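If I may wish for something, please sit down with the protein I am sending here and say whether tokens and residues agree:
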Amino acid sequence: MTMTLRENNFLLYFSEMKDPRIERTKRHLFDDIVFIAIASVLSGRDSWNDMEYGEIKKDWLSSFLELPNGIPSHVTFNRFFSALDAEVFEFCFLSWVKSIHQRTHGEVVSIDGKTIRGSRNQGCKIATHIVSAWADKNELILGQIKVEEKSNEITAIPKLLDALLLEGCIITIDAMGCQKNIARKIVTKKADYILSVKENQKELYEDIKDSFRILATSDYSEDLDYGHGRIETRKCTIITDLSLVENVDKWKGLVSIVKLECERYFKATAKKENETSYYISTLSDALSITHGVRKHWGIENKVHWTLDVAFNEDMSRKRKGNAAQNYSNLNRIALNLLKKDDAKVGIKSRRKMAGWSNDYLLKIIRN
């Protein structure tokens, strides 16, 4: 069996990254380091130390990697990915995802941020915060961007939008992303939006509440969801009369304001919970908006929760240089690859299978 990093369809996208090392210090090949790192994360390893698992599989790895000085040490992996240009790594990630993402009209793309809590240095309040975009129908992380220090998601989201192909998609973002420039950017990308509105946009929030007290509704939908020991009723009401919304022309493409009322009944306790939330959208169909809001939570359940439970990301204590950001990229590469497989088990079990079976690991990488 022969396979090199540059011959593999997936790994080809990462083979053009610039090696951050000084020439005279290079004992291990760039390609070997990248391949072992990705294979390690796919196989259930969660630290630089764990990447030395290559020693156990040295005979197998040497059948297609050169390994001129054996398996790199955990120190080498740490230094390499701490120094590797994180922005270039993210660009390569985006290029790869674009090659496998099959855009479909009306696909919901959710954008949300996640803090890697373990990346916070002792005595420092700042931890690495990553904003990701999740395509629900394709079940792919389309891209991610690190929120810069002394900044927030408001500045990061437009940069992420710039990098993505979004024509025909429906973009959902929580209240932090309810900003005029973000709405304008989405419309410019020929996409629709559903943006959550809370009191961080106080004037808009009050205008929407007033509208629902005074104006006639334009469309309505209701659905029931049974499962997980509860019954959830969702009532979506929209208004397309925007006469009470001040500066409405500054919200590019705005067509409707939305009220979503949720009632959750828990069977075991007979307890009820009620929640009302508001949105603005370029859509005017209540059913489509309800669908989009529901799909938004996929980024929490299928990305953030999975990264914490199956990849232990929130416990990661990688702090040196670009280590946290680059390891986050490795995790998301692995999650996308594992999601593409059709094994009838969860992500954590797929990682174990990749660790047990070399054939399964190669199948995942070659997908």
User: Anything to note?
Assistant: The chain has a mean pLDDT of 89. DSSP finds twelve helices and nine strands in the chain.
